[in-house]
Amino acid sequence: MNKKVTLGSSICLIFFLSLSAHSQINYDKAKVPEYKLPEILVSSNGRKIQTAEDWINIRRPEIVNLFEEYMYGRIPEAVPEIKFETAKTNSNALCGKAIQKNIVACFIKERDTIRMELLIFIPADATKPVPLFLGMNFYGNQSVHPDSEIPVTKSYILNNPEFNILNHTATGESRGTDSASWPVERILERGYGLATFCYGDLDPDFDDGFKNGIHSLLGPAEKNDSNELSSISAWAYGLTTAMDYLETDGQINKSQIVVIGHSRLGKAALWAGAIDQRFAVIISNNSGCGGAALSRRIAGETVKDINTMFPHWFSKNFHVFNDKENELPVDQHMLIGLIAPRPVYVASAEQDKWADPYGEFLSIFHAGPIYKLFGSEIIQNDTLPEINKPLWAGQMGYHIRTGDHGITRFDWEKYMDYTDYHFSREDK
Ligand code: GTR
Question: pTM of the prediction?
Answer without folding.
Answer: 0.95
